[in-house]
Structure formats: C-alpha cells, structure tokens
Amino acid sequence: MERHVESAITIKGQATIPKPIREHLGLKPGDRVKFFVHPDGSVVLLPKLPVASLRGLVAARLHPPTTDDIAEAAAAGAIQDMSPRRRR
User: Fold this and answer.
1) I want to staple 22 with a disulfide (CB 3.0 to 4.6 A). Which of 6, 7, 27, 41 is the partner?
2) Are 19 and 8 a contacting pair, CB within 8 Å?
C-alpha cells in the first residue's frame, strides 16, 4: 500500500477515502467508519464492524451463568467500586 495518499475536502465537508485505504480496511459502499482523536491530535479511522462479524471470536461457555453467578459478580464489582483508590 502507498505510504502517502491525499483527499480533498468538498464544500460540504466530505472527503473521499482513497482506494488504497478502502482496500486496506476492506471498506465497501455503505460501510460505516469510526474516527478516534488521540490526545496528541492524531486521528485514526477504523471500520465500524457489525455485531454479526464478532460471532465466534469468543469461545462459548459450556454452562451459561446462573442468576447467583450474576448476583455474585455484581456484588464483587460494587465492592470494588467502593474501595478507595490510591493516587499516584
């Protein structure tokens, strides 16, 4: 892929994503993208993946959690949230 590509901003504030970038990200017409602004001022554009694309990334649990498991995890999280945090 080319290291340097450009795109002009239209009067409507729109820009065309150059073909090498679209191909690199696997973008097709109608796909959505997300923009992230980092503290240093740099901007990152990433494809917004549909939820269906995440299917199969995490192994299924053999047994779904019980209501007791959920209550226990919620209580543990609440206790952790209430504990004093150390300052650096």
Assistant:
1) 27
2) no
| 35, 43 Cβ separation under 8 angstroms | yes
The pLDDT value recorded for residue 75 is 84
CB 32 within 8 A of CB 25: no
Tokens of 23: 């191909």
Kindly tell me if the per-residue pLDDT of 61 is higher than 60: yes
Beta bridge partners of 15: 9
pLDDT tens string 69-86: 888 888 887 766 665 655
- Tokens linked to 57: 């990334």
**How far, in Å, CA of 7 to CA of 69, rounded?**
52
